[in-house]
Amino acid sequence: LTVEVKGDRQRSFAMQLARVPTMTPSLVALAVLGALDSVTQSGGRQGLDLRTVFELGERGELNVVQSFDGDTAAFDAALYLFAFADFLLNNHLEAVEVTGIQIELQQHPEPRLATLVDAHVSRTRVRPGDMVSLNVDLAEYRGQRSRTSMRVLIPTSIPDGRYSLLVGDGVSIDVARLTVEQTAPVTFDQALALLRSLHSRRDLVVLGLFSGQGLSVAGEVLPQLPGSIHSLWGAAASSSAVPIGLAIASQQEMELEIPVVGAARIDLDVRRDGPVGPRDREEAPSSDPSSPADSGRVEDAASTAPRGTSAREDSL
C-alpha cells in the first residue's frame, strides 16, 4: 500500500498490509486517516480529492476517483475506500486477489463544493440528431455564482415524444441510473464493470431517458425490447427478469474544476417532422449567469428523480 498526501505539505508512505480479508479494508481506512494526521490533520473543514488504483492481478486495475468536502471529508474518504476494499476482498461472487493499492490524496484548505441551482437548454423542441446547448448555473462555496456550458447530442434512435435530460453531479446521476436500470451484478465481471462506471462529484453528467419497454435480466439491461419478446420473458416467470419502464438513450459527461452537488430535469419534445425552430448557432453559449434564462422547463431533482426500486414512467 502506498499513500501520497499532496497540498501545502507533502509526504509519501509505503507499507505492507496483513492479508486478512475481514481486517484489510479497515487497515486501508486507518492508513488514510493516519497519513493525513501525520502530514497535516484528518479532521476539520477542508476539501479532499481522492485518487486510488486497486491492482487486481490478471483483472487489471480498478481506478477510483472521488471528492469530499466539509468537516468530515477525511473520514468520508476513508469510509469510501473501506467500502471498495471490502467488496473486492469479501464479495460473494468470486475470490479476488488484490496485489497492491495506490492512494493519492490532494488536500485543499477549505471546501469547494458548489450547488447546482439551475439548468437550461437552448430549445426544448428538437429532432433526433440535433445538438442543443446546455447551460448549468452553480452557486459556489461562499455564494459566488458561475455558469458552465456543454453541448448535448440528441440520439437518432429515440422515438418521437418526451425525452428527459437528467443533469447533475456524477454521484447523483449514478444513483438515478442504477435506479432506472434496476440491475444487480451476478458475476464479478459485471460488478467490476459497474464499479468502473461510477463517477465523481467533479463530473457533470447528462443522462438521456425516454419511455421504453425493457428488462433487466441476470445483471444485464435489455432496453427497447419488442413487445413479443417482452411478453415471452413475462410468461416465463423468471425471478431474474425485472421490467424496466425507462430506457437510457445517452450519457455525456464533462469534468469540472470543482465538485458539484445537485441535479435537475429538463423535458424535451422530440419531433421528426414539422418545424422545430431555429437551429443552434455554432458559437458557445454565453457564460454570463445573469443573462436571460433560456427556454426549457427544469424541475428540482429532489422532487422528480426516480425513487425507491421502481422505474415507473411517471417518475420522470
Account of the 3D structure:
- The chain has 316 residues and is of the alpha+beta class.
- It is built from six helices and 16 strands.
- The protein has helices spanning 24-39, 73-90, 170-181, 188-196, 227-236, 301-304, and strands spanning 2-6, 11-14, 46-55, 61-70, 100-108, 114-121, 125-126, 131-139, 145-153, 161-169, 203-217, 220-222, 241-255, 260-261, 263-270, 298-300.
- Strands 7, 10, 11, 12, 13, 15 and 16 form a seven-stranded mixed sheet that branches. Strands 2-1-5-3-4 form a five-stranded mixed sheet. Strands 9-8-6-14 form a four-stranded mixed sheet, covered by helices on one side.
- The model is unreliable at 280-316 (pLDDT under 50).
Summarize this, please?
22% of the residues lie in helices and 38% in strands. By secondary structure, it is α+β, with helices and mostly antiparallel strands. The strands form 3 sheets. Strands 7, 10, 11, 12, 13, 15 and 16 form a 7-stranded mixed sheet that branches. It has a 5-stranded mixed sheet with strand order 2-1-5-3-4. The protein has a 4-stranded mixed sheet with strand order 9-8-6-14, covered by helices on one side.
Q: How many DSSP-defined strands?
A: 16
- The pLDDT mean sits at 81
Q: Give the oligomeric state.
A: single chain
The biggest sheet amounts to: 7 strands, mixed
Low-confidence stretches: 280-316
- What distance separates the N and C termini? 44 Å
- From the alpha carbons, calculate the radius of gyration and give it in angstroms: 22 Å
What is the structural class? alpha+beta
**Approximate helicity band:** 10-25%
Number of helices: 6
Shape designation: flat
Strand content: 35-45%
Q: What order do the helices and strands follow?
A: EEHEEHEEEEEEHHEEHEEEEH
